[in-house]
Write a structure and sequence with these properties.
Radius of gyration: 25 Å
Number of helices: 2
Strand order of the largest sheet: 1-7-4-3
Largest sheet: 4 strands, mixed
Helix content: 10-25%
Oligomer: single chain
Structural class: alpha+beta
Shape: globular
Order of helices and strands: HHEEEEEEEE
Length: about 170
């Protein structure tokens, strides 16, 4: 039956074109970030420091996102919880209205002092400094620039909030 075959062929072709259109529309091309110097004249790292730059991808509802900075070091760890203490201060890039951050006063590591279970092994793990000031607004329009001591890495993670707000009870 030629008519049914034409309908089936047309439907198959239509489905293929629809899938191809959706695939193209949802694909986000990877674009290299601009050179930091092209954005603003952030200072060079001081002696004993490294400058770390985080370029965030553009996302929907960026007002619901936060960036947690985690400066730290890879070190030998055991079963005890470990952490570093450090100060993160924000600095204004004069004349541009941009902010950059400096990690200083690094102390530690601090650790719990539990006896580890028999047979547990030491391992290398990333130990981060934590603090309330390490949570920043998500903004894909500007880089996050962090100056840290040479022996620290700067890692980060993205936190997501819910659009729906919960109500507090009145007591």
């Amino acid at each position: 039956d030629t008519c049914n075959m034409k309908k089936a062929l047309t439907m198959t072709l239509l489905a293929a074109v629809s899938c191809a259109t959706v695939a193209c529309a949802t694909h986000t091309p990877i674009v290299a970030p601009p050179a930091l110097e092209d954005v603003a004249p952030f200072p060079e790292a001081k002696a004993g420091q490294k400058r770390h730059v985080i370029w965030l991808a553009e996302r929907h509802n960026e007002d619901l996102l936060r960036v947690e900075l985690a400066p730290g070091q890879v070190m030998q760890t055991d079963c005890n919880t470990r952490g570093l203490m450090a100060t993160l201060t924000s600095q204004d890039l004069t004349g541009f209205g941009y902010t950059y951050y400096e990690v200083s006063d690094v102390k530690g590591p601090i650790a719990t002092m539990m006896a580890c279970p028999e047979g547990s092994e030491e391992k290398e793990d990333f130990v981060a400094a934590h603090g309330h000031e390490y949570s920043l607004n998500y903004n894909s329009k500007l880089p996050i620039v962090v100056y840290a001591p040479q022996d620290l890495e700067v890692r980060y993670r993205i936190w997501t909030g819910d659009k729906k707000l919960q109500s507090a009870t009145v007591e």
